[in-house]
Write a structure and sequence with these properties.
Elements (H helix, E strand, L loop, with lengths): L1 H7 L1 H6 L7 H33 L8 H16 L2 H7 L1 H8 L5 H25 L3 H9 L4 H33 L8 H10 L4 H30 L2
Helix pairs in contact: 3-4, 3-7, 3-9, 3-10, 4-7, 6-7, 7-9, 8-9, 9-11, 10-11
């Protein structure tokens, strides 16, 4: 197998598996910059989306001021292109991480991007739930926590669907994180492939990114169908 790779994909073979520029590190950094921001930004986005719905006019915790501020924060960060967000959040990143370079630094901006994106997705899912179910829960004397649980349980299939969309979008943003030395498969495709005219590196890195995206899509679709049929 190694002989075939060396013969037909010489530049891919030359990069090797280990080392800072190796394929192992590129795959690790992509997964690292996908999972950590998704967990941090996803939890914050889920809470933010729920809070937007609960504090909206007619909501269980109606509060126009909080709703307005949270809505505008989400809109601002959602509107900023990710590559610019990296620069804007550099001072915060330096404060939290101690540096503006590398995968850990990229995770700060990626988490904020996921927060704003996922918050909007959650808000749409929750706002489209059957109002009758929520009203029935309120009429039966349900507490705020009970109503939150109703929102989450009723919207779970759609939450998984939008989580899948968010993860796929995040994989794409990890490629741009290469601008601050974060590494990853996207950076390998551009820095070690395209910029050096090594087409085999570009194609293999792209193929690995596609495999990751297809795996996320498959798992998301599987879980959505599984839960929807319960």
């Amino acid at each position: 197998m190694a002989q075939l790779i060396e013969t037909y994909l010489p530049n891919v073979y030359k990069l090797g598996w280990s080392g800072d520029a190796g394929w192992g590190m590129a795959i690790y950094n992509t997964l690292y910059m996908t999972l950590i921001p998704f967990i941090i930004g996803g939890i914050a986005g889920l809470l933010g989306g729920l809070f937007l719905v609960l504090t909206a006019p007619g909501g269980v915790l109606e509060h126009r001021g909080i709703h307005f501020i949270l809505d505008k924060i989400a809109s601002i960060f959602r509107a900023i292109p990710f590559i610019i967000l990296l620069a804007i959040l550099a001072p915060l990143t330096r404060l939290l991480i101690g540096t503006t370079l590398g995968a850990d630094a990229a995770n700060v901006s990626l988490s904020v991007a996921v927060f704003a994106f996922f918050l909007r997705q959650v808000q749409v899912v929750m706002a489209e739930l059957d109002k009758g179910v929520i009203e029935a829960a309120q009429a039966s004397g349900a507490t705020t926590w009970d109503i939150i649980w109703v929102y989450l349980s009723e919207g779970l299939p759609d939450l998984i669907r939008v989580s899948t969309v968010t993860l796929i979008s995040l994989v794409g943003e990890t490629a741009m994180a290469g601008a601050i030395g974060a590494g990853g498969l996207g950076n390998t495709a551009i820095s070690y492939g395209y910029n050096r005219f090594n087409q085999d590196v570009t194609w293999v890195a792209t193929l690995l990114i596609l495999l990751l995206i297809f795996s996320i899509q498959f798992l998301g679709d599987f879980l959505t169908r599984k839960i929807s049929h319960k």
